[in-house]
């Protein structure tokens, strides 16, 4: 992961000092050094210390020497002793003295700037029962989600609240997330193991490199890698360049991305949950009766047509988000994120038990064929409506599998062992029937 990186200054200097017999070779044999050197010999912080230290531990290393400002970050990695040093001369003196432990004991990280964040909550969303249900299902089963609706109906608002109902990350997952942020040069003060899944929402004008990864000089991870173990939200998705949308296909398939540049090829993790939002047509009004919309049928089809195929094929949940009506404004407030998050947690546990010993963890990852055959196959009585829709050509087999996956998640949220006919019926209504065909 580290290339064209200044963190090799310090190891080179230590190697030179060893060659000059200033340092005993045995003293530094099993140590990893990371850091940039200033001309006066002081050691400066570098990007990517966390992933480098992770690799060092995996390679069996037990001691690492890092710049003082990177120490807090390096100490997030379990199983390694971190020596924080400020100056090359201090390091060489420490090696000469033969001291077991050296460096700055526990440098206090720089003060964290106070960021005032307005907490968002699902309770803020008025009405939109179907979209709320879809959001909960997406969180529970890891299903990708597509929200379609006119401007101002709350699509962006809903998507932003997905992060509030997703389960916390495990410690291992958190460290993966922090490793990516470390590569991007986030300062140590901002790195903490907080367990919140990342929520990354690149703008539609963002470059291919910013979204997928790359860069003209050094290769950097893109938004899809920053969204690893979390959510990638593409708002106004038809406005993204087709080439960008196309290149999401491979990471969606494999959970990782290969970024190639003239001199280097880098593999980054990119297992993210995709959430997309769109208006039904370029003017945004062409929904339902489409009052006021003057877009031609051709323009409408072309607008959403850019999403079809590879991208939408992977999206189990496609729901319409209609404009908020006055009657729903008067209705009771929706459930809070905390209440929904508890149900999501329960559904995750049910899935963990069901798919234990298989390559899958979540219903969204299970191939349709597995759900149609063998152990997980549902009885004819349960699938009767689905079978009929398939026979009549109202549902493709792919659409059938999507409905089944969502049906399992509905059952998990309700605490049932397997989906009922009603669960599948509900899953069927959660598909977007007309505007984006399955
Ligand atoms: N269902 C809703 N409940 C509460 N407030 C809403 C709802 N829908 C819209 N709003 C209000 O309208 C604003 C715009 O909503 P939002 O940005 O989510 O709409 P949108 O569907 O993403 O629209 P656009 O297609 O223009 O991006 C919100 O900030 C909120 O104040
Ligand atoms: Mg929006
Ligand atoms: Zn229109």
UniProtKB/TrEMBL annotation:
Record domain AAA+ ATPase: where: 141-325
Pfam family name, one: ChlI
Gene Ontology terms, MF aspect: ATP binding
Origin superkingdom: Bacteria
NCBIfam families hit by this protein: YifB family Mg chelatase-like AAA ATPase
The family this protein is said to belong to: Belongs to the Mg-chelatase subunits D/I family. ComM subfamily.
Protein's UniProt name: Magnesium chelatase family protein
Organism from which the protein derives: Pedococcus dokdonensis
């Amino acid at each position: 992961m580290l290339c064209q990186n200044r963190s090799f200054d310090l190891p080179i200097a230590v190697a030179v000092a060893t060659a000059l017999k200033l340092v005993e070779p045995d003293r530094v044999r099993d140590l990893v050094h990371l850091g940039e050197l200033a001309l006066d010999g002081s050691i400066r912080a570098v990007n990517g210390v966390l992933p480098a230290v992770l690799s060092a531990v995996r390679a069996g290393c037990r001691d690492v020497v890092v710049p003082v400002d990177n120490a807090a970050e390096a100490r997030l990695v379990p199983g390694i002793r971190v020596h924080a040093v400020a100056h090359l001369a201090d390091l060489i003196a420490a090696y000469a003295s033969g001291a077991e432990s050296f460096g700055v004991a526990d440098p206090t990280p720089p003060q964290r700037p106070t960021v005032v964040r307005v907490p968002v909550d699902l309770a803020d969303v008025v009405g939109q029962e179907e979209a709320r249900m879809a959001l909960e299902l997406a969180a529970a089963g890891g299903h990708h989600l597509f929200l379609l609706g006119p401007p101002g109906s709350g699509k962006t608002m809903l998507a932003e609240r997905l992060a509030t109902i997703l389960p916390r990350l495990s410690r291992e997952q958190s460290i993966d997330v922090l490793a990516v942020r470390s590569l991007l040069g986030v300062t140590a003060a901002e790195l903490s193991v907080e367990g919140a899944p990342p929520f990354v929402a690149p703008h539609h004008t963002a470059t291919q490199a910013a979204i997928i990864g790359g860069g003209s000089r050094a290769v950097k991870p893109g938004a899809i890698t920053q969204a690893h173990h979390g959510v990638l939200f593409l708002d106004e998705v038809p406005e993204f360049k087709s080439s960008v949308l196309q290149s999401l296909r491979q990471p969606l398939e494999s959970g990782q991305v290969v970024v190639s540049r003239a001199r280097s090829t880098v593999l980054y993790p990119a297992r993210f949950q995709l959430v997309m939002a769109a208006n039904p047509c370029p003017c945004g009004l062409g929904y339902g009766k489409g009052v006021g919309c003057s877009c031609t049928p051709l323009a409408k089809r072309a607008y959403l047509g850019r999403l079809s195929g590879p991208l939408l094929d992977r999206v189990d949940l496609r729901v319409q988000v209609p404009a908020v009506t006055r009657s729903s404004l008067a209705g009771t407030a929706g459930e809070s994120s905390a209440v929904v998050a508890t149900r999501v947690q329960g559904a995750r546990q049910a899935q963990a038990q069901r798919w234990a010993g298989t390559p899958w963890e979540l219903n969204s990852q299970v191939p349709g064929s597995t759900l149609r055959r063998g152990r997980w196959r549902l009885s004819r009585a349960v699938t009767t409506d689905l079978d009929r829709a398939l026979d009549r050509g109202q549902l493709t087999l792919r659409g059938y599998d999507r409905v089944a996956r969502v049906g399992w998640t509905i059952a998990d949220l309700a605490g049932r062992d397997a989906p009922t006919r009603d669960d599948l019926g509900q899953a069927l209504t959660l598909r977007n029937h007309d505007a984006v065909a399955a």
